[in-house]
Structure prediction request, 588 residues.
Amino acid sequence: MSRKTIKVNYLARVEGEGALNVTVRDGRVSNAELRIFEPPRFFEGLLRGRDYSEAPDVTARICGICPVAYQMSSVNAMENALGIGVDGPLRALRRLLYCGEWIESHALHIYMLHAPDFLGYAGAVDMAKDYPDVVKRGLALKKAGNAIMSLVGGREIHPINVRVGGFYRTPTRKELAPLAETLKQAREDALATVRWTAGLDIPDAERDYHLVALHHPEEYPMNAGRIISNRGLDIAVEDYNQHFVESHVQRSTALHSHLREHDCYLVGPLARYSLNFAQLSPMAREAAKEAGLGHTCANPFQSIVVRSIEVLYACDEALRLIDAYVEPDQPFVSAEPRASEGFGCTEAPRGLLFHRYQLNAEGQILEAQIVPPTSQNQPSIEADLKEMVGDWLDLPADALRERCEQTIRNYDPCISCATHFLKLDVRHE
Amino acid sequence: MSESLRLIRIIGIGNRDRGDDALGPLVVQALQGRLPESVSAVEHSGEVSGLMDCLEGAEAAYLVDAAVMGLDPGSVRDFDARQRPLPSLGGNYSSHALGLSEAVELARALDTLPPVCRVFAVEAATFEAGEGLSAAVEAAIPGVAQALLDAVTQEDGHA
Prediction:
């Protein structure tokens, strides 16, 4: 019997610390395990006893690349608990802020973390020497996203302007005007990004995923909607725990998520795109068609193209929101504490992010539950590797390891969020 | 960002709430009111695109950051980034937040590295959230601030 183990003992260009062990027995992959060994961060524990109003700022600290997602899921959950709603310009501003995060997070991943895999470079610095204009375009796009974060969120990293009920301060139309000019150029850069990523040498690897994302009939999902799937799931955010379950596995300090009845599932750009193609803007749909994408996408290596479509959409949507913006009378809606439970779910750049809080009558947090996208995608990452590595076993050891890393980077995993990430260990037995 | 910065720049990188990572911002604070007119001193989180903006268009840039170099805590190293690539300065635990070395090397690859670019790195003892500076790193601040003041004064004289 021949047995081979592929080990990646430290995965670069992913967020956090982790490792991958793949075991090959008689030419077939018998096991693929993602080991996450970053220490857990106990955010759910430290939220207990805190005031409800602190949740957006505390949870924003979970991640430096997607703090808005944490703020948005937490304020949605708190507003659900307190029985208030945010609509009109305040809702639009939240969507604008989320566009900023998608743009900066996706641009970083596309250009700095993922593209080097497709072009055979160790990283963005080496790639920049041969593709300076491409890397400059990526940095300019990221900067445009950061500009939204700064203006609407108060600063680029860990924004400070979001509160339960709205914002501490809302921008004027005059303040948003220069941002629109920046975003017009960013939209051009985003369109060029779609065309560029579509031309990359993308491995052919379709997978039969159970795709899960938010869905809203009138908009591409960010802050609102029902949780749906391509296999018939269609539930309110409040019912999340009736259908999804988290479990601890020894190899990971991040909990694994499963659907109670369907095992692993996929969240993130492929799921969002495939379940919400009709809600993209005409420009984004046209660009997807030109890039050769259908209305759905099940090739994880095409996630770089789908992220580019989402960057284009986010630029287009941000421009629409700025154009339609009416300065609100009040920057926030007031709320009174009450004993209650609230649920919030939004679309982080990496996928569905669920929050649940239980409050006492004074508004203190009694219990917090946070389920980040990378936790939900861990079983799917392992399933991808288990299914795909078998086709690559003839590759030289280094190329095999690189392909495994690339497969994991398809997910833009954020192990800082999931606790946090990565090493490859392929063992042949 | 570069439009509002002067041509000679001191960039203190770090997070005031992460133990010795506060070094960069505290050095910048120690230099306030002591710098020539032609010099800007700014704090920065180290976020790669923003940091590259700070470097672009400068005649001289002096970066100061806490680092993990395997030295005794508080030890100071002065790297001339124009002369050779920066060594790993550690502390880059997040690949989503590319570090100081990556920002400098990207700027070099994209031909936006200033004609003068020096990095003052101070060996850190702790990056614990919510902790203050270690005694060794706190003791290094006056010396680093003076070295930066000497460097920019000399550069200002050349300008």
About this structure: Confidence is low (pLDDT under 50) at residues 416-422 of chain A. The domain at 3-428 of chain A is CATH 1.10.645.10 (Cytochrome-c3 Hydrogenase; chain B). The interface with chain B takes residues 12-17, 64-65, 105, 108-109, 112-113, 123-125, 128-129, 132, 135-136, 139, 142-143, 146, 156-157, 414, 416 of chain A (CB under 8 Å). The longest strand of chain A covers residues 28-36.
